[in-house]
Design goal:
Helices cover 34% and strands 33% of the residues. It has 213 residues and is α/β, with parallel strands linked by helices. It has a 9-stranded mixed sheet with strand order 2-3-1-4-9-5-8-6-7, sandwiched between helices. The protein binds phosphoribosyl ATP (PRT) and magnesium ion (MG).
């Protein structure tokens, strides 16, 4: 019974390695050095597939992978259909925030109830956030480089992930509101959890015991 784990390259892969190690699993290839998309491990029945971060929920939902690791941002945007979300792994941490140019008075715009244009890749999170505040927004969907939107007049504000804040600073933008804290979660295909109950339980328990504080 093979177990397939979906991970994305970069921070999620790197920060999941210690959890895998705690479960006795060593990945045998370095994704930064090889072009392979399926990575073997020291466990003959466990393999890792490398997918785009935003594709992890799709693989897990439809059973292309039995389980995966994805950011709370990605999971909220995708929805949790067909998946069970047993653990917050407390890795790949950052926050979702609203940012504007330093000369834009966000507080006044919100207070006056003016319509603001918000550019973001995270339209679901942005829609919920502004709806909860009762603020009217025109959402503009982007796929990257959100920081450019307020600088070019495309939008007054952006909703984006912030970690150190250096990307915002480099583009002279300021974080005006924190929407939510983000970390990555383990997601498991619901059918797989029934069919492969024992090996998946063991893996989930080993991950749970190794979550960083
Ligand atoms: O890069 P790609 O388009 O393939 O996909 P991705 O950007 O979704 O993948 P990846 O690996 O960059 O991010 C995977 C997950 O890591 C995200 O879904 C988040 O849950 C989490 N994470 C943690 C982050 C960050 N920290 C982060 N800082 N994801 C993105 N960033 C970006 C942010 O979008 C912004 O452009 O880093 C920039 C801000 O960083 P600071 O340090 O300058 O503030
Ligand atoms: Mg990225």
């Amino acid at each position: 019974m093979t177990i397939t784990l979906a991970l994305s390259k970069g921070r999620i892969f790197e920060e999941t390695l210690p959890l895998l190690r705690a479960a006795g699993i060593e990945v045998l290839e370095d994704p930064e050095k090889s072009r392979k998309l399926i990575l073997a491990t020291n466990q003959p029945d466990v393999r890792v597939v490398l997918v785009r971060a935003s594709d992890v929920p799709t693989y897990v939902q439809y059973g292309g992978a039995d389980l995966g690791v994805a950011g709370r941002d990605v999971l909220i945007e995708h929805g949790l259909q067909g998946m069970y979300q047993p653990l917050d792994l407390n890795i790949a941490k950052c926050r979702m925030s609203v940012a504007t140019r330093a000369d834009f008075d966000y507080a006044a715009a919100v207070k006056q109830g003016s319509r603001i244009r918000v550019a973001t890749k995270y339209t679901e999170i942005a829609r919920q956030h502004f709806a909860d505040k009762g603020v009217h927004v025109d959402l503009i969907k982007l796929y990257g480089s959100m920081e450019l939107a307020p600088l070019t007049g495309l939008a007054e504000a952006i909703v984006d992930l912030v970690s150190t804040g250096s990307t915002l600073r480099a583009n002279k933008l300021v974080e005006v509101e924190r929407i939510m804290d983000i970390s990555s979660r383990l997601v498991v295909n619901q059918a797989a959890l029934k069919l492969k109950r024992e090996p998946l339980r063991q893996l989930i328990d080993a991950f749970a015991a190794a979550i960083p504080k």
